[in-house]
Amino acid sequence: MVTKQVNGLSEGDADLRRADSLAREIFSDVANKWALLIIEALGERTLRFTVLRDEVEGVSHKMLTQNLRMLERNGLVERRVHPTVPPRVEYTLTESGRALRATVDAMCDWTHRYIADIETARRRFDD
Amino acid sequence: MVTKQVNGLSEGDADLRRADSLAREIFSDVANKWALLIIEALGERTLRFTVLRDEVEGVSHKMLTQNLRMLERNGLVERRVHPTVPPRVEYTLTESGRALRATVDAMCDWTHRYIADIETARRRFDD
After folding, report:
1. Are A75 and B23 in contact (CB < 8 Å)?
2. Which of A23, A109, B49, B107 is least surrounded by Cβ atoms within 10 Å, i.e. has the fewest?
3. How far apart are CA B40 and CA A52, in angstroms?
4. Distance between CA atoms of A108 and A110, rounded to whole angstroms?
């Protein structure tokens, strides 16, 4: 790697810091319950907005729109508009979206595995 | 399993629905960036509040307090108060917290693995 000193920092350092800050930004985008529940609901399927809204329990129209837009911007979800009247809009996970889904699955498994422990802890804490 | 019909639903069904709703509640608690970043920062260590605040970049005093309380309530974090003057308060992940950390690690790995794809997708979307 060719590095150049700029204000005492090499370009390599600057690249690393930039990548680190971008990674944090991406993590902040996706690490929210609605984004993760949308990814989980899509799974291997292609779904219309209205179907997705029914599948993600409790999500508002606004939250679903915002998160789908964020997921599309990050390239995790592909949005396809079919030129029908009215237009049919469908969403599918991309390769990176499906890869993230594996970690969401692991988080869901964790929830079910520790549900009894968590319930006991909550009862103790609330008493 | 002994089941009893109550309003057309067996007790078994009611138990399942209750577990399902509890699992969703737990998922909603932990699937937020501050909770996940706190879990990641703690790792295998025992840390004081002030050290933890320095480790979790950008977290406010209020967000750290709220999330530590939530994690303690769910039994993911153990809070220990040492009777010094002033009292020293330390936090450590429990077994369930460490198990969740494995999924957070996977999410961080995912971020780094797809960072270039995500950057390209963002550039295309923003244009």
Report:
1. no
2. A109
3. 31
4. 5
> Residue B2 is encoded by which pair of tokens?
């002994």
CATH value at residue B57: 1.10.10.10
Reported pTM: 0.86
Q: What is the ipTM of this complex?
A: 0.85
Tens digits of residue pLDDT in B37-78: 999 999 999 999 999 999 999 999 999 999 999 999 999 999
Q: Does A127 touch chain B (CB under 8 A)?
A: no
Count of CB atoms within 10 A of residue A16's CB?
Answer: 12
What's the number of domains chain A is made of? 2
Neighbouring CB atoms inside 10 A of B8's CB total 6
Query: pLDDT tens for residues A29-43?
Result: 999 999 999 999 999
Q: Which of B33, B71, B72, B120 to mutate to test the interface with A (most CBs of A within 10 A)?
A: B33
Statement to judge: residues B25 and B36 lie in one domain? no
CB contact under 8 A, B103 and A99: no
Q: What is the span of the domain harbouring residue B43?
A: 32-126
